[in-house]
């Protein structure tokens, strides 16, 4: 079985990033590559919004370790940024509708990254913005236009 890696084509803080680390996902052989800014040999600031990883957010300071998978594997969050993560899956909606949702989220104050045309990750820098985004996404989900989750378990 070949390992599968999810990449971030347009990380939100691309201008800060100078390193990519790897995070194991719960499914065997699946990993998410995270754009980061290296702070020390083994600590990094996350510069992207995780698409699949839970309990990690943009701006978190994380520690890495060498594992059987190789060096620079996410070990743990050492300093949470206090930011919030949402993930949105669009089942069968037009590109125009996805764009409308993106623009609304940005208008509320969120940041957006896309993995594929149907999967959007959202960053909210504080609880107030996160609440407004969650309220909006809940309305959209109830109308059957998308499904969403938070990045915390």
Report on the structure:
This protein has 153 residues and is α+β, with helices and mostly antiparallel strands. It is built from two helices and ten strands, in the order E-E-E-E-E-E-E-H-E-E-H-E. The strands form two sheets. Strands 1, 2, 3, 4, 5 and 6 form a six-stranded mixed beta sheet that branches. Strands 8-9-7-10 form a four-stranded antiparallel beta sheet, with helices on one face. A hairpin with a 5-residue loop joins strand 2 and strand 3. The longest helix has 16 residues. The protein is globular, with a radius of gyration of 16 Å. It starts with a strand and ends with a strand. The model has no long low-confidence stretch (mean pLDDT 95).
Helical run tally? 2
Cα Rg:
16 Å
Oligomer: single chain
Task: Give me the count of strands.
Answer: 10
Poorly predicted runs of 5 or more residues: none
Q: What structural class should be given to the helix and strand makeup?
A: alpha+beta
Q: Strand-and-helix sequence, N→C?
A: EEEEEEEHEEHE
Q: Per DSSP, what share of the residues sits in E-state strands of 2 or more residues?
A: 35-45%
Percentage of residues assigned to helices: 10-25%
User: How far is the first residue's CA from the last residue's CA?
Assistant: 28 Å
The biggest beta sheet reads:
6 strands, mixed
Report the mean per-residue pLDDT as an integer.
95
State the shape: globular
